[in-house]
Amino acid sequence: MPLLRHEPQGGVRSLDELLGIALALEQEAVRRYTQLAALMDRRGETDTATTFRALIAEEQDHVQAVDGWAHRLGRPTPDAPAFLWRLPPELAASWEELTERTRLTPYQALSLAVVNEQRAFAFYSYIAASAPDEPIRTHAEALAREELRHAALLRRERRKAYRRERGRAEHKPTRADTPAELERLAVALLSATAAEHSALAAHLLALGDGDGATLLNRIVGEERALIPAGSDAAASQAAVPDTVPACLRAAVTASERLAEAFGDVAAQAIDELVLTESLRLQEAVVGHLALLAERIETRG
């Protein structure tokens, strides 16, 4: 589980446990987003504060939904604080680190929020994968999809913050309305990103970073595996940086563009197959981003 350093403590063996964990996670998200909204308000970053307040409203709706879910199942509303210890420790640690920064920018705040939504997605995915029965698996998968949708929203807002901080023009969100359109888009994007990563891997090897080159080549293989057979490969048109850290940052940027594009598609999807497939593709790219982040962290 690259987004979580350790597997969650214990498995979820009942819907009551899953209800308690979901409620604890949603209430914690409300608390943290409230802190970030207030911080952004104090700094005059009204657009970012508005984004966090919108997420607060969504998370509060989810809290009520969990209450309703418990009621429909004939169960009492869980005692959320009793389940806080079941949440991934990475969530609390990263929130604390973020709020302690004295010069927190909107881009940094949104980046952390993206990572934590992805961690929540990984957490629920683990629960689903290890579920002892179908009801737990189905509900955990639904919770995971919702966290991934939040991550897609935050990625778009993060890109806006990035452009605001650098005075860049707004971009037009990527869109695909049918499965065929998504397939064509995915072929183009994955092929181009794989070509860019392949060129970066070759340069990393030439610069003496064999481990980094191996990692990028692994990512290239996984990206190409996502492309339907028979599709033409693209050639990289991107300039290759001349240092190892710059190459790794360029690899991250390429994957972020890819994840953002699939997130845009998912956020605007009007077709269930498009939504499911774009989320699947985004999930794969998010995993690549986590691997690259770990590589950069390892190098210091």
TrEMBL record:
Residues 17-66 form the Rubrerythrin diiron-binding domain. One of its GO terms (molecular function) is metal ion binding. It comes from Azospirillum baldaniorum. Keywords: Plasmid. It holds the Pfam family Rubrerythrin. This is Rubrerythrin diiron-binding domain-containing protein. It comes from the Bacteria. Coiled coil: none annotated. Transmembrane segments: none annotated.
